[in-house]
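Aim 2 progress update. The chain analyzed this quarter is reproduced below.
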Amino acid sequence: MRTHSTRPSAMTFLVCVSLLAGDLRGQDVSVDSTRYVLEPVAVTVTRTGVTDLQVTPLSVTAFNAERLGSSYLNNLPDIADFTPGLSISANANIAQITIRGIGSNTTLSGGETSTTVQVDGVYMARPSTALLDLIDVDRIEVLRGPQGTLYGRNATAGTINILTRKPGDEVEADARLAYGTFDEMRLDLSLRGPVVPGRVMGGLSIQKADRDGFIENVNPAAGGPIGEIDRLQIRGKLRFVLPDSLEVTLAGDYTDIDETPLYYAKPLRPTGLGESEFDDLHVVSVGFDPVYTHETRGLSATIGYDLNDHVSLTSITAARRSDMLIAADLDATEIPVLRTEPLPEVQDQFSQELQLNYDTDRLRLVGGAYYLKEQVESFFFLKIFPANLGQLQGRNADTDAWALFTEGTYDVGRNLSLTAGLRYSRDDKEGLGYGGLYAIDAGPSPAPQFEITEQAEFDALTPKLGVNYRVREGFLLYANASRGYKAGGFNFITTPGENSVFGAENVWAYEVGEKATLAGGRAHVNMAIFYSDYTDLQVIEFLGAGTERVRNATNAAIRGSELELMARPTRDLEVWGFLAYLDATYRGSFATFDPIAGTPTDADGNRLNNAPEWSASLSSRYTWRLPTGDFAVRGEVTAKSRVFYSPSNNAFETQGAMGLLNARLSYATAGGRLEMALHGRNLTDKDYITGAALFLGPTGRPAQGRTITAILSYSY
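Predicted structure tokens:
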């Protein structure tokens, strides 16, 4: 495997900030400059209505629909390169999200993730449902750091809010057709408008995405390339605006996926069992093509009622179902050693949230209750060919989770505000694991050789305290202290006699930051400095032979800083960027497995998974405004230092420092209704991996090389 080193240019970034910021008070800005000030960035992360990002005392990065389209960002992993502290990858389309060094590689039905993902306020409980392609999205909001008060359980790393477009009384239509490398074809269609003007509005969106595999499989026994895409999504909304300040929104979505996904397909060191050449990351030799089918569907009802000018009530009721089938050649070689049978995971969830908002000139208060019922049933059958054995694992997990929460901000004076919040969360879990070892030819016996039945209860109080001081108009200072909680769960891959329950993970986090609007509104410069103290950290380990385990192995200390920039130096030039530093290490002795030495090793002081010390991004767009339309050129550079993918920090399960270059050329007709664009990603064709795991040996998940995509868009 080739790795490439590219140091983030911190000095260059800071020089750009200095040049663009100008005088802090903005007193030297001419009157004409106000014609091209930055537009306010709307966010809803505080759950007290829409606020301006620059007066929201949280670490938030927001992407509106225009920015998502202009950077050709089609799913959540695409936004990670432009968000400080965020790393997102997909193992066969199952989300692995890390924020500020905290994340989860587990896909087990008995475990939880560290970042919550919400779509229109509905929590997506399984990592397999968090990475659906973006369809009819209005904006995405990424909150960094624990969000225990407002977003609750499993938000120890942060939360991601996805908000889709709301139909109104104006007829709106959008269409996008894209074709690119590896015969990528994407079609997005959406229509919104009135059904009964002023009373009933509707919206319908359809997306179809196809792409050939970009990993060549040279084994003639297999079917072809790996990493293809074949997806269909449909989303619909009906919005009712009723008398007496009552509004009801009904929403439904459906997704169907059937593809040969990308997984840990590339051996990272020779095994001697037959594999592809190691100097080409995008060539493998596996015995059969992976399988991934996934059908999801969901319904939700959001009811908003204004009791008076100061008090409003919101109810969000949702039910979702996920049917997934997955199989892979885990040894990643042409010799049959470790393979899984295509066996299912079925998940059902029901959630109910009630929010009460109180808003006056000096007090903004939100409180409420939340309930989640989740049932997951999954099966796993691993074939171990040299021993002619099959390992069966059946896993059933039921969760009842509920919470009570409140958070409020009080304006003590004209410029000083205090924030306080508290949430009580409780998880009641039941789990059943069963299985055993069987002869492959005979298949699994109806009677399991072992059975593990567990019950566990987890609860936590997660408070928050904050102080916000407005130094002047457009310059906010803030400080927050908050606690986060991640529920425990079950390991159903253990053998009888081992402890199959792992405990909850907790964190205290502290952050100070500033949000400055500079140069007469032409620049936003936001900075945060943070420290997080994790106890009973849930550590995911790959133990070989397709086995992973979660345990409360140790503690962790995380400190760092983030600087974000948005600027419009001239009417035609726009700039975005960030620079982030992260020191994230295990704190406390705990033994983990080193696959290179084949022996246990102490991970104390090692870096956490997916936690680069430095990361940076710088994007700019210049527009030539012509009588017939606008011609624009956009460039994007992203870079990060080395990351590790296992607690042992071994030399194979890692990706070296690297940088990526993207570019876009576009022409939009006058009025902006029709746009033609050419988008290039990873233009220097860097080879790198986005994850690694230990099965027969260390194996990696290759990323795509250079891609060029032609895009035609129309808006009405």
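The chain has a mean pLDDT of 87. The longest helix spans residues 10-21. These observations will guide the mutagenesis experiments scheduled for the next reporting period.
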